[in-house]
Amino acid sequence: VQRVVSAEEAKEIEAKEKRKENEKSKKPTQKRLGIGAALTLLAKKPKMSVLDKSDLDWNLFKTEKNLKEELETFNRGKNGYLDKMEFLTRTDYKEFEKEKALRNATRKPI
User: Which stretches does the entry tag as region Disordered (predicted)?
Assistant: First the structure.
């Protein structure tokens, strides 16, 4: 669709396009803070996350109850609990296989 545009309208359209290009090329300006605002930002205490708080509480509890040595003794590795559970599962399965073999041996063939 084409239409006839006067010289004044053409200038206005070109000016709008230039303004849009200039706005796009400008970097967003950051809001300047005064000295007081900057000091309040620096003075704020960082918030502690739930995980940090739990870790701090657990470490404090271990030191109060002198549990560090005991935990290291019974852990026996990084994944102590998981290793124990895996061992129990394996032994249970082996026991089941032995019982199954015994039952199959006592069955009468058809």
Answer: 1-31
